Each structure stands twice: as C-alpha cells, then as structure tokens.
Amino acid sequence: MKSTFIILIYLSQLFVISIHAQEKIDLVWFSKYQGQQIADFASKFEGVRYDYADSDPLRGFDCSGYVNFVFSYFNIKVPRTTSQFANIGQSIPLSQIQAGDILLFKGSNTNSSSIGHMGIVSEIKQGKIYFLHAATSNNRGIMTSGLDENYFKIRFVKAIRISYPF
After folding, report:
1. Among 48, 63, 132, 162, the one annotated catalytic
2. Which of 1, 4, 79, 135 is least surrounded by Cβ atoms within 10 Å, i.e. has the fewest?
3. Predicted confidence (pLDDT) per residue in 112-163, tens digit
4. Which CATH architecture best describes the domain 2-161?
5. Catalytic residue among 70, 71, 133, 162
6. pTM tops 0.70, yes or no
7. Is 117 considered catalytic here?
8. What is residue 157's predicted lDDT score, i.e. its pLDDT?
9. Quick check: is 63 catalytic?
10. Catalytic annotation on 133?
C-alpha cells in the first residue's frame, strides 16, 4: 500500500512538471507571436513627426510616448516616461532579443547613467537588431535604426521584455 502511494505521488509530480513545461512552451510561443504583432503595429507609425512629451499619432510622439501608445493598443500597461522604464520588465541578453522587446539607451549625455531614450525592436535580420523610435534629430520622427549604429551602440543600456497578458 505504501509503495502504491509513493508511485502515485511520483506520477502526479511528473504530470505537474509536464503541465508546467507545456505552459512555458506556450508562453514562449505566445510571447514571440505577440511581440511580432507589437512590432508590426509600431511600424505603421513610421514617419509620424516627433513632438516632445506627446503620445498622439495626430500630433506626434516622443520616444516614451510612442512606446506607451503602441503597448497601450494591446492593453499592456507600461510607464509614460523613459526614466520609469529602468526598473520594469525582464532584462534580456541581446542574443535572446525578439521583435516587440524594448531597447533602453542613455540620452545625449553618455556620462549619465539614467535612461534618456528608447525604442521597440522591429526585426532581427542577419544578426543585426533594428528598432523603431522617435528621433529628435532633424525632426525625423518615428524611424527605424540599427543597434549597431555608433550613436546607439555607445548609449545602449539594456533590453527588456514586457510580460504579455493572456
């Protein structure tokens, strides 16, 4: 009787482990799918002008307003200002980055440790990471840049992934 009970406990643990493994696989798939949807939606605003402290596609975006607007469309609550992004999400290595992740950068002062700029990863092509962001220079607005560009390479702080709701 005791050995039957132990076998049942063992089998139930295997069942629970199997369920958790499947949930992790589903979460990874869902995360990539949702991330690509976020990147696709974000790309629809390429060319919208830059407007400081704004998050309205009719008036323009600043970088955090753009990220906030895009994620809000998917009912994902994120902060409104760049500095508030420093301690949210899950930090991820660049080797695991995917569309929909967020890149955080220092602002124009490279000696500062605070977050001053951000963007949404749009694609990884031939090992290069591209992201959408609101550019202030020459009032270019929402545009795609590469993380390998020197301006961004020296300002890069970290990449984060926001947990996507079901």
Report:
1. 63
2. 1
3. 989 999 999 999 999 999 999 999 877 789 999 999 999 999 999 999 999 7
4. Alpha-Beta Complex (3.90)
5. 133
6. yes
7. yes
8. 97
9. yes
10. yes
